[in-house]
Amino acid sequence: MSQSGRCYCGAVHYTFDAAPVLNLQCHCRECQYISGGNPNVVLAVPEAAFRYTSGTPQAFRRSDLEKPATREFCATCGTHLVTRSPGAPGLVIVKRGTMDDPSAFGNPQVAIFTKDSQPWHQIADGVRAFDGRPG
Ligand SMILES: [Zn+2]
Ligand SMILES: [Zn+2]
């Protein structure tokens, strides 16, 4: 079943039609900037299954990192929609809060980079937690 999503203002829409290969929350310091302070809750889907259906996002890559992720966001309202990471080749990492149904696919299955967690971060019962990236 295909899923769709959009930015806050509605200028950029996307869809994907594959089951996620990863369903996780990331506690790393970088994700705290992106999320506003909490873990970043994301799904990773095959690049081939993902496409924008209206609007064109702007892309941002930090120039001071050796292997920066590419972050795609709406140039009008600033909503960050997806990330493409050299650490996750062939995948598009979708921010669940931008999906039309953020509850699709249930709870995150793992929590990663918990070494960077803040005291207020929550991990649901039964979710496996990893200090860093799972091996
Ligand atoms: Zn927008
Ligand atoms: Zn992260």
From TrEMBL:
Keywords: Lyase, Metal-binding, Zinc. The keyword Amino-acid biosynthesis does not apply. GO terms for molecular function: carbon-sulfur lyase activity; metal ion binding. It holds the Pfam family GFA. SUPFAM superfamilies: Mss4-like. Residues 3-121 form the CENP-V/GFA domain. It comes from the Bacteria. PROSITE patterns: CENP_V_GFA (PS51891). InterPro entries: CENP-V/GFA, Mss4-like_sf. Belongs to the Gfa family. PANTHER family: CENP-V_GFA DOMAIN-CONTAINING PROTEIN-RELATED, GFA DOMAIN-CONTAINING PROTEIN. This is CENP-V/GFA domain-containing protein.
